[in-house]
User: What shape does this take?
Amino acid sequence: MTWNLDSQRPIYVQLVERIQYDIVSGHFHPGDRLPSVRDFASEAGVNPNTMQKALAELERSGLVSTQCTAGRFITDDPSVITGLRNTLAKQHVQVFIEKMRKLGCGRDEILELIDIVFEEAAHGHSFGM
Amino acid sequence: MTWNLDSQRPIYVQLVERIQYDIVSGHFHPGDRLPSVRDFASEAGVNPNTMQKALAELERSGLVSTQCTAGRFITDDPSVITGLRNTLAKQHVQVFIEKMRKLGCGRDEILELIDIVFEEAAHGHSFGM
Amino acid sequence: MTWNLDSQRPIYVQLVERIQYDIVSGHFHPGDRLPSVRDFASEAGVNPNTMQKALAELERSGLVSTQCTAGRFITDDPSVITGLRNTLAKQHVQVFIEKMRKLGCGRDEILELIDIVFEEAAHGHSFGM
Amino acid sequence: MTWNLDSQRPIYVQLVERIQYDIVSGHFHPGDRLPSVRDFASEAGVNPNTMQKALAELERSGLVSTQCTAGRFITDDPSVITGLRNTLAKQHVQVFIEKMRKLGCGRDEILELIDIVFEEAAHGHSFGM
DNA sequence: GTGGTCTAGACCACT
DNA sequence: GTGGTCTAGACCACC
Assistant: This one.
């Protein structure tokens, strides 16, 4: 698992996003214990304080909670996770559609392109880049 | 028309993207003469050198060309513009679908969400800006 | 009965306050024998030395007295207890009014808010715990 | 203006509370510019990072906002300030009544004591201690 | 070992 | 000069 941090945006923001994804996508499960701040930080190649800041952010949003001296845990309320997933999904769709609109792509063309990309993917093309 | 530059990513990259959009979306037309580097830079509120770098980038990709002493012009070959438009559109779709895939959204859910966002937009909700 | 000790303030101070409350509020009665230091400490989940320090403090203020070999007893002079109760009550009121004054709340607003809180409590809202 | 920080509770929390009070009590006014992080920190005798953390907290709650490179400003929406004031006031009342309840003081006795304290204050006694 | 907090000092971009 | 971010290293209390 690589972290792919770029130095253009605040690292702690990228950490938050990345961990959110890992929770939402099922890499972490509700109730799971997260690695310790120090381990997590070293895994991501950042300073423990930076990871601490990211985790505090996640705590503020209710995704993780800390049981002092025992570590940090993913919320065990699946609805919080589902809620975040849906929020993120909708945000992505909105940003995406706005970008396409600026390119002059309407609804039909968007749907068409999506089908094309899915077709290609189904025939073994890779997604990412 | 505001330029909305953020200081997180290299300015010239943002300028390139923005001008690409302006060409592709029809704000600039094939054969149009671009403002002078100096004017363009002052309009965007950036240093002329930065704008220069952005325009050089656009030249490299064939979107604009310099006719010495007469200034810079948008390519008069519509197919180049259409090509860019389609390339950008497809890129956006691929990136978007990859993000959604990471969230665990399949094709059907994506289509559903897109319809929802279009519905909302039709009822007066703003997109992102 | 939980002890709710927080690690922010010296433990023994919190014990003193808590036992004062238990005496003043009638949980312990005049002349009652207190549990042994060891039992009391284990009940509160603290080190016996810490409890010892707390009890010494209470002895200094005349609330409890040691009868050698027989253990520690709550004072059998009800006026001492009543005196403490009134002292604590007045202290709380003074500190409270000072805080409210800093917020710009005058006498009338304070009385109004107190009535509101009592109203809410009467309708089943919990206070603080 | 002294800061009276005690080392028992997180300093940044105390800074938040103190600045909240200063805003709510009218020492800072809506739209006022706060001292720079560095100045503010040195005035309070803390590390700039600690002050930064406190101000970030205040920003999160909407009390102050930062106009990048221009400094931080108190919100110019008086209703936010009034809202905070009322929230704090009610909290204090609740905590106070709960404490008094534990002492066995009912509503009437509380009101009586408040009047006594106000009487004393009116005759020149000091509040605080 | 855990998390939480604080400090000191640095760099960046903007103006 | 402003705020924002990051790092390194320290201390504390709890278990």
